[in-house]
Structures are given as C-alpha cells and as structure tokens.
Design a protein that fits this description.
Blueprint (H helix, E strand, L loop, with lengths): L7 H10 L1 H21 L6 H8 L1 H18 L5 H18 L5 H23 L1 H5 L5 H29 L3 H20 L15 H14 L1 H31 L4 H29 L1 H21 L3 H20 L1 H5 L8 H29 L12 H17 L7
Helix pairs in contact: 2-6, 2-8, 2-9, 2-11, 3-16, 4-6, 4-16, 5-6, 5-9, 8-9, 8-12, 11-12, 11-16, 11-17, 12-13, 12-14, 13-14, 13-17, 16-17
C-alpha cells in the first residue's frame, strides 16, 4: 500500500487546523498537571486530587455528544469555538488563585465545560475538510500540535510555578487565547461550512447514536479501547509531576524539564505513526505500539530508580505519541457522512470515561499501595494502572480491521 503526496494547499490547511489543538493541549495540560500540585495545599489525599481532575471525564460524558450533535445541525461549527474558548481562557487564568477545594472544583467544571463545547465541533472539522487519503498524516500533524502544546506546558510550567502560583495559568491562558484567535482569522470559513443533517432534536441524535453503537460491534470495540488509552494518559498526566517531585525527590522545575525531555519521543512518534498508518493501516501500527507502550510503563512500576525511569522514557514516550495520534484515525472510517460531529461526540464519550477513571483509579492505587512502595510514597503505583489499561486494550483492538 503506497501513500499519495500531500498537496501544498492541504499542508497549509493541516497547519491551520492544528492551531486549536495546540491551544487546547497547552491549556488542559497546565490545568491537569499543575492544579494537582497546588491542590496539595488544601488536601493531601491523592484520591481527592484524582477526583478533581476526573471532572474532565464527567464533563465529556455530559457535553461531548450534545455539542457535536448540535454542530451537525448548523452550517458551521465555528461559533462553538468562538463562544466557548473565551470562557475556557478566563477559567484557566483564574485557576492559580484557587485557595480551597470548592473554588478549584468550580473553576475545573467551568473550564472543561467550555473545553468540550468548543472541542467537539472543532474536532469534527477534520472529517469535514480533510481528504480520506491523508487521514493518518492529518492526525499526525494534529498530534504534533498537541505534543507541542503538552511539551511547552510541562517544560515551562514548573519554572513558572516557582515564580508564582498564578503565573503558569495566566501565561497558558494568554498563549491559548492568541492561538485560537489566529485560527479563527486564518481558516477559510467557506470551506468550514457543511450540509446540516436533518435531525429534529437532541433526543433524536442520542437515539440514533445509541442504535448505532448497539448495532456496530466495531464502534463498541473502539469505544472500549479508546477509553483504556485515555485512562492511561489521564492517570499519567495527573500524577507524573507528583511522582517525580514527591516520589523521586526531583525539584518542580527539573521535573518539568524531565517530562519535556520524554515528550521529545512523543513528538518523534507522531509523524512516523501517521505515515505508517497511511501505509500499513492504523490498527496494525497501534497494535505493535501498544505492546511497546505497555511494557515500557511496567519498568517504573517495578523499579523506583531515576536512571532506570530515564531509560524507560523513550519506550513510554514513543508509545504515548502513537496513542495520542491514531485513535481518531481509527474512528474516521467508521463515521457516516452526515454525522461527523455526533460521532466525534462518541469519541469523546469514550475518552471521557477514560479520563474520569484514570486519575481516580491511579489516586486510589497510590493511596492503597503507599505501604507497598514506601520509597515513592506509593506514587509508582500509577504506572501499574497505566500499563494494565494499555495491555488490556490490545485484545480489544483486535476486533477492529484496517480498511484499504
């Protein structure tokens, strides 16, 4: 199977389409990675911290399908991005001022509500505007933007947090706002329009989606597998800084740089996996990458040594890069032409289950295994939860087949 070249106009479109991914990845990474660090000032319970970040998944379950479905009924999805993004930016900027659990909880709820109202319609622009023959490379470009936002957030967040609690949140809000504004100015709006579907109500949309999932074993398999992948990513994102700072004794600034160093392998994986996906199919590429990813995360679970963890970073980073890149490429061939937004909501429902369970299960495991892993205060238990989720997803992925 050969790959066809990307045309110059398509390359520009992919670069513009990826801008919100960078902005949202930067914003969500700062929120989910550094708010737990601040939260230790008003709670020492890893379970409570996990529940706080699990709000992301709950908001996905409540809002992803309605936002995607409503965007299918209009001629343009861009108003959702235009109206929800400013709310997200303001909520993020205020997070550094949170001095109690109720305030932090309220801001997290507002932030992720705005995120999913904006993100589901935005994500549906990919199947609307991108040719099927470059789906894998389109997702790798988007994942590069996502990786860049994640790396920037983690690499600078620790140093900015050392300056002041509000600094990383305000800085991320400013950069995210400017990036989304640039996207809205540069995207050719006439190409972003689509033919509205004929759904009469949200209840009708949900009923159709439920019937679709009930009848399609491949969609059910995708939802389970994607939920497990997001469970792993959510647990890692929530507790990685605490694992390094509390568990291994690394300073906050150095821990950010260490994670950013591992994220370089994520950045390397995204273009490689996109090209391999278009050539060999996303299922085959995912299967082998998941095996590497799962085994890589077992290493820090069993060994609490900074040198060993550093040696495992390439495996974890590369596998994580593939998992951040290809899931949506797996889903696009399963979509109906007039339900891109609705089915994208399905993607985020499965993602929401994972992002809700990941921080929660990892937090519980850390608390329960504190005595088993005393040298890291139990934080290495996080890796066991992540590895189990990834390895369990491999047989589920086997129910999907690549389409030529």
């Amino acid at each position: 199977m050969s790959t066809s070249p990307i045309k110059p106009g398509e390359r520009r479109l992919l670069l513009i389409l990826g801008l919100p991914t960078f902005a949202y990845a930067l914003a969500t990474t700062v929120a989910t990675t550094y708010l737990p660090v601040l939260a230790r000032d008003f709670t020492t319970s890893s379970t409570v911290i996990g529940l706080l970040i699990a709000i992301e998944g709950i908001m996905a379950l409540l809002l992803a399908v309605p936002a995607g479905a409503l965007s299918d009924r209009g001629r343009s999805r861009l108003p959702f991005v235009e109206w929800a993004s400013p709310v997200l930016v303001v909520a993020l900027a205020l997070m550094g001022l949170a001095s109690s659990l109720p305030v932090a909880l309220a801001l997290v709820i507002i932030f992720f509500a705005a995120y999913f109202v904006a993100y589901e319609p935005y994500r549906a622009l990919y199947p609307d505007m991108v040719d099927d023959r470059i789906t894998g490379r389109a997702q790798s470009t988007q994942a590069l933007w996502r990786g860049l936002g994640t790396i920037l957030a983690i690499a600078t967040g620790g140093a900015l947090l050392a300056i002041g609690d509000t600094v990383p949140f305000v800085a991320a809000a400013i950069v995210s706002g400017i990036t989304i504004a640039a996207f809205l100015m540069l995207l050719p709006r006439e190409r972003a329009e689509h033919e509205p579907n004929q759904s009469e109500s949200l209840r009708d949309d949900v009923r159709r989606l439920y019937a679709l999932v009930r009848e399609r074993a491949d969609l059910r398999a995708f939802m389970v597998a994607n939920g497990l992948w997001e469970l792993s990513l959510g647990a890692t994102k929530t507790f990685i800084i605490l694992y390094l700072t509390v568990g291994l004794g690394v300073t906050t600034s150095l821990s950010g740089l260490a994670v950013a160093g591992g994220a370089v392998f994520i950045a390397a994986a995204t273009p490689i996996s996109g090209k391999l996906s278009d050539r060999f199919g996303p299922v085959r590429v995912m299967r082998w990458s998941l095996l590497v990813y799962g085994i890589g995360m077992l290493i820090p679970f069993f060994v609490a040594d900074s040198v060993v963890v550093a040696c495992a970073a390439p495996l974890v980073g590369f596998g994580g890069g593939v998992v951040m890149t290809l899931p949506y490429a797996l889903l696009i061939p399963l979509m109906a032409d007039d339900d891109h937004g609705l089915t994208t909501g399905l993607y985020s429902v499965s993602r929401g289950v994972g992002t809700a369970l990941g921080p929660l299960l990892a937090g519980i495991a850390i608390g329960l295994l504190d005595g088993v892993f005393p040298s890291t205060d139990g934080y290495q238990a996080m890796w066991g939860v992540c590895a189990a989720a990834v390895l369990l997803s491999i047989p589920v992925l086997g129910r999907l087949r690549d389409r030529s």
